[in-house]
Amino acid sequence: MSSAACIFCKIIKGDIPSLKLFESDKVFAFLDIQPLSLGHALVIPKFHGAKLTDIPDEHLTEVLPVAKKIAKAIGAEDFNVLQNNGRIAHQVVDHVHFHMIPKPNEKEGLT
Ligand code: AMP
Ligand code: ZN
């Protein structure tokens, strides 16, 4: 299921460019366009839904393993995985997405 008006569905289809990190039949991952740190990635189910409660379980099972794979692949030792639902919770894009935000060591000079 996808939504013609959804920016992340357009990214999955390739209608909007992205820096793709991973793709399978159910999951897509790409770099955030306004990264909070180097390597800030978004991992999304291909199934369109605004909130976590809109996504069937079978479309979510691979999402955290992919976030884990990306964190390991880029050598992020400390990182946050965040997922916002609804405006009050600071959600801006209405297609479920998990942020994987590396927290580099301050000594490395990256924020
Ligand atoms: P949220 O506040 O959880 O809805 O976060 C939405 C995230 O999507 C933000 O971190 C944006 O920088 C990111 N974003 C919006 N448009 C794009 C895009 N075209 N490509 C990559 N990331 C995007
Ligand atoms: Zn969508």
From TrEMBL:
<comment type="similarity">
    <text>Belongs to the HINT family.</text>
</comment>
<feature type="short sequence motif" description="Histidine triad motif">
    <location>
        <begin position="95"/>
        <end position="99"/>
    </location>
</feature>
<dbReference type="GO" id="GO:0000166">
    <property type="term" value="F:nucleotide binding"/>
</dbReference>
<keyword id="KW-0378">Hydrolase</keyword>
<dbReference type="GO" id="GO:0009117">
    <property type="term" value="P:nucleotide metabolic process"/>
</dbReference>
<feature type="domain" description="HIT">
    <location>
        <begin position="7"/>
        <end position="110"/>
    </location>
</feature>
<feature type="active site" description="Tele-AMP-histidine intermediate">
    <location>
        <position position="97"/>
    </location>
</feature>
<dbReference type="GO" id="GO:0016787">
    <property type="term" value="F:hydrolase activity"/>
</dbReference>
<keyword id="KW-0460">Magnesium</keyword>
<protein>
    <recommendedName>
        <fullName>Adenosine 5'-monophosphoramidase HNT1</fullName>
    </recommendedName>
</protein>
<keyword id="KW-0547">Nucleotide-binding</keyword>
